[in-house]
Amino acid sequence: MKPRIRSAIVQELLETGALSSFKAIDTHGHMGPLAPIYFPNPEPQDMVRTMDRCGVERLVFAHHEALVDPVRGNQKAQAAIDAFPRRLIGYFAVNPHYPDLLKEGVRNFGKLRGFAGYKILAGYYGTPITCDACVPLWEHAHEEKLPVLLHTWGGCTCAGPKQVEEIARRYTGVTILMGHSQYGAWDDAIRLASELPNVYCELTAAYAAGGFIQKMVDSGIEDKITFGTDLPWFDPMYGIGCVVFARISDAARRKILRDNAARIFRRWMSQPRKKQSARR
Ligand SMILES: [Zn+2]
Question: Residue 205 Cα, ligand 1 centroid: separation in angstroms?
């Protein structure tokens, strides 16, 4: 089959069924089962097997359980990272409804192994990212120059465009990944990523919105987009296909699927150890 888009990356995907000249980095994942939904491959070794199949080198994730019970869930995330330190990087999940626990998590962050930054699911908790309880987290992430993944959605009053802008301007050391790219409020997402050096659009679910990837790249923010899948929710090949078959350059495809994330997470990707696959 001859692709209508002239691209070495399209060609290799069609010929080999996966990315082969470079590996993707997934900046938005989870882990473990979730009560109302059946996931066929939710455990660490299952997820790494999925990553192997799809050409994904690293996944940055917050454990599902950590979004509800941060103590147990983050412990499970730590165990998974310890088992696959070359494949998994953690977001330490916090719940602003437990401010003392949040403060303790921030205080002990330095003792964790392989965690890059934080994850806040603000809209689900009904707690704006600008709330008092989040201040220690933002101050720490600002001082240590850590990434923070947010669940952002158009119309959300907890981590919508207004709150992200306020936090990004106040804590310039933090790299904010707008999970789902303010889904639906595309123009706001593009504006924030263009105007604010520390704000990125993350593509989970947003990759499927027709024309959005091309619109972002045409708007000049190809250096400000990261790839993500919500693994184990969605198969990475679907999202990879959305990026690869978007009408953008090969340079932009590579930046979105790998290079931008490699720049953000370089510090946590540095130790060279031997290759780990799901077969252990
Ligand atoms: Zn998610």
Answer: 9
Contact 66, 73 (CB under 8 A): yes
Q: Report how far ligand 1's centroid is from the alpha carbon of 3 (Å).
A: 32
The Å distance, Cα 68 to ligand 1 centre, comes to 13
How many residues comprise the chain?
280
Measured distance CA(42)–CA(32) in Å, rounded: 5
> What domain range includes position 33?
8-268
User: What pLDDT, in 10s, does the model give residues 241-268?
Assistant: 999 999 999 999 999 999 999 999 999 9
Determine the distance separating the centroid of ligand 1 and the alpha carbon of 29, expressed in angstroms.
6
Confirm whether 278 is domain-assigned: no
Ion ligand 1, residues whose Cβ is below 5 A away = 230
Tell me the sheet residues that pair with 202: 226
Residue 249, domain CATH: 3.20.20.140
Complete edge-to-edge strand list for the sheet that includes strand 56-61 = 24-29, 56-61, 88-94, 115-120, 147-153, 175-183, 199-202, 225-226
Q: How many CB atoms lie within 10 A of CB 98?
A: 16
> pTM higher than 0.90, yes or no?
yes
